[in-house]
Amino acid sequence: MSSLGLLLLLFDFYVKPTVKCELYAMLLQPYIVHIYDVYAILGNTAVMKCHVPTFLLDYVHVTSWIRDAAFVIQTTADKEGKYVILPSGELHIREVNPKDAMTNFRCQTHHTLTGETRLSASAGRLFVTEPQGNVSPRILTTQTAVHVRQGEAAILSCVAQGYPVPNTT
């Protein structure tokens, strides 16, 4: 593959003369996925994000997270556990404690057009801080829109951080 990438053509065949045919061209470029460090107050929820280039958001999806290069966290139906991966690919780490401090996380992605699986180029580290008195609640996650296919469940995330630990409902 050259530094310019590979041109991929996607098209639909005519089944009947009245069926609309669409042709798409996409330049497949090498891409890098990054994770950044996250700071969380003891007892709160930390949110790790896999930063995929915007031109690939429709094609590259997070399939799992790897903690300290050894423990694989995969999507599960259990939304009450320590680790939860949202459909957006975000990793929520609930009730962070001193054992969680200084752990490293990487995300693994899958490119739906090429079938390529890729590990993030960088690892994000979780820093857990002790509260120094009261800390006003701060909303960490905001969503302007949630897209789901008909019949799928929509997950609306609301994560706040503060001390004492804020309750969200």
TrEMBL record:
<dbReference type="InterPro" id="IPR036179">
    <property type="entry name" value="Ig-like_dom_sf"/>
</dbReference>
<protein>
    <recommendedName>
        <fullName>Ig-like domain-containing protein</fullName>
    </recommendedName>
</protein>
<dbReference type="InterPro" id="IPR013783">
    <property type="entry name" value="Ig-like_fold"/>
</dbReference>
<feature type="domain" description="Ig-like">
    <location>
        <begin position="30"/>
        <end position="120"/>
    </location>
</feature>
<dbReference type="GO" id="GO:0098609">
    <property type="term" value="P:cell-cell adhesion"/>
</dbReference>
<dbReference type="GO" id="GO:0016020">
    <property type="term" value="C:membrane"/>
</dbReference>
<keyword id="KW-0677">Repeat</keyword>
<feature type="domain" description="Ig-like">
    <location>
        <begin position="137"/>
        <end position="169"/>
    </location>
</feature>
<feature type="signal peptide">
    <location>
        <begin position="1"/>
        <end position="21"/>
    </location>
</feature>
<dbReference type="InterPro" id="IPR007110">
    <property type="entry name" value="Ig-like_dom"/>
</dbReference>
<keyword id="KW-1015">Disulfide bond</keyword>
<keyword id="KW-0732">Signal</keyword>
